Amino acid sequence: MATRRFPANFKSLALISDFVVDLAEKADFSANETYAIQTAVDEACSNIIDHAYGGENKGEIEVNVIQIRNGIQIVLRDEGEPFDPSDIPDPDITSPLETRKERGLGVFFMRNLMDKVIFEFSNRKGNTLTLVKYKGG
Amino acid sequence: MEFTTTEHKNCHVIAVSGRIDSYTSPKIEEELKSLFSEGHCNIVIDFSDVTYLSSSGMLVFINAEKKCRLKDQGRVLLSRVPPQILSSLKLAGFDQIFEITPDIPAAINRF
Question: Which of A106, A129, B34, B69 has the smallest count of CB within 10 Å of its CB?
Fold first, then answer.
């Protein structure tokens, strides 16, 4: 459907969301599903800035959105350090506030809101994160 | 993202509009710190015009609520939360931590 590159900084997050939300709406996702896609992409891009690049303005994030059968596939690419979300354990969402550790909440959202979260790294291409959401999934 | 803070008799209401994400959440964090430093720890967040809340935004409110409980002083109430944001809060288990009210008068009356 479309590919765009954005500077890897937090100011880009709203622009990336606008880009992805527009395409999800055009693909006839419901409002709830579109919000879920927005959340997963936003959390993934925040992690790329924080963890793959280690801070803002160290590179770019390429966002590629493709309509697939009964769904949408979003591929995020960056040239930062390897950052595999599957290495991050889920937070314990049932523990009391006083002892609760929040690390991993963004990745937890990605896993729970999308149907597929696939990470790949190559020295040549950097990090590639593929997010898939099916309608009604 | 923009916000307006209104002082009431026993609490402050912060009405936020737009996206609360990694870019904008530090601004809300600063406002909360500023209110806390002045001894204002009873806080209502009016979410009615919030279009998106990320995990970084949630953590700002969680950390504020943690501070309140550690000091045993005040708390953070969430009010008029749009359904999709409420779903995200529930997914993270935060509906068990925050008191969430359907309207602002109900929130103000809790203090």
Answer: B34
Tokens of residue A52, six digits: 């793959």
β-strand pairing of A71-78 with A116-122? unpaired
Cα separation, A131 vs A108, in Å, equals 13
Chain A residues whose CB is inside 8 A of the B76 CB are: none
pLDDT tens-digit map of B56-108: 999 999 999 999 888 888 999 999 999 999 999 999 999 999 999 999 999 99
Residues with Cβ within 8 Å of A132's Cβ and at least 6 positions away in sequence, in order, are A68, A71, A72, A73, A74, A114, A115, A116, A118
What are the angstrom distances between the C-alpha of A101 and each of A43, A105, B28, B66, B92? 17, 9, 21, 12, 12
Kindly list the residues from chain A whose CB atom is less than 8 angstroms away from the CB atom of residue B97: 97
For A112, which residue in chain B has the nearest alpha carbon?
Answer: B91
Structural tokens at position B106: 């109900």
CA distance linking residue B104 with residue A112, whole number of Å? 31
B91's tokens: 């997914």
* Closest residue in chain B to residue A94, using alpha carbons only: B93
CA angle, B89 as apex, B87 and B95 as ends, to 5°? 105
Taking chain A (137 residues) in consecutive chunks of 10 residues, what is each chunk's mean pLDDT?
A: 96 98 97 98 97 97 97 97 88 82 90 96 91 91
pLDDT mean across residues, chain B: 96
In sequence order, what are the beta bridge partners of A74?
A65, A131
